[in-house]
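Notebook B, p. 112. Complex prediction, attempt 2.
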Amino acid sequence: MGAERKAVVLLSGGLDSATTLAWARRDGFVCYALSFDYGQRHRGELDAARAVAQSLGAALHRIATLDMGFIGGSALTDRALPVPSEPSPGIPITYVPARNTVFLATALAWAEALGAHDLFIGVNAVDYSGYPDCRPAFLTAFEELANLATKAGVEGTKFRVHAPLVTLSKAEIIRMGVSLGVDYALTLSCYAPSEEGRPCGRCDACRLRAKGFAEAGLADPSCV
Amino acid sequence: MGAERKAVVLLSGGLDSATTLAWARRDGFVCYALSFDYGQRHRGELDAARAVAQSLGAALHRIATLDMGFIGGSALTDRALPVPSEPSPGIPITYVPARNTVFLATALAWAEALGAHDLFIGVNAVDYSGYPDCRPAFLTAFEELANLATKAGVEGTKFRVHAPLVTLSKAEIIRMGVSLGVDYALTLSCYAPSEEGRPCGRCDACRLRAKGFAEAGLADPSCV
């Protein structure tokens, strides 16, 4: 196998990022999982991220604190805005401005310090809810930026942003994850869970998840 | 003058970013100044940033908390590493991995929430200490990323990263700042100041600053 290949994997605690971590492990990467405490409404997703990182054998899991609450403008970080329970046209209010840019930039910083050249992100351009920073063109632009932004890039490293789910449907992601041994009971997708961490069943994220399990012909173990 | 033009200005509390804020104000922008508490060794620069923002008429000044201490690898955030007192060849140990990428990404998030299309950063490619993320190619790549990363970009906004100091020498920056009314007594450049906030006089940042004032034929008011 040669030298150890390290990767930084963005891990939210949801279904997609858990599947992405399992994929990176299957590909032989030693995985450094990175989550963010960025003033999101609920902390249940950080508990889920911890459980997923341990379950899937991440070498290390770190939670970066990033105060984005002052930015406002998103229903996911601004408590004054309600999470919609009906789908809306266009880019939804749950979009956090430039979130994946901030997350990837921080992942890049850690990658450079670790000597890793590979970043994994569980974005998806099919069931992607219309977020601009989930598109392949965005990911390619970030790779180009990473090579210019870093000491490693100046010295010849080519950073790669892996988005193994980008062209998969939610049902395909779930089937893939099951084959890779992901325990979806540990994951949390809901934007507005109860105090006890139970999904609301009505938000965009719950809807996409339920549709995915239905189309995959599987029961969602987190709803049992 | 038409509609109000807002800009997000990265403000460290040092000489360069203070001059950049003055430049953005002179250009007619309503300025939203953004500083970072990212585990840097000393907090004196945040006090300096507050004083500079007020002195130069920023509309708002926010300090984003970003825990980058877990990343390690830089003498500016890792207390186990000494700040060098002699120049060294290559990219110095005071380089923080991907720092300007993280800072610009966060500035972009705020800009999008504010409806601003302009970001200002005080990087400099002349006396730039060899940091890769101070080069014009990096800034252009970030503009391209910003247009792909955001709802505003998808809807047709062209973000612009202004780096008005990028081709100036330190002496030219200082002469420019003086003509724009910057009070350099408020700024702090040192990487390793004393508890009382006095500059060490030996680190790269102190050396560049002293050389700049000498070449501009001016006394540094912070040393009086």
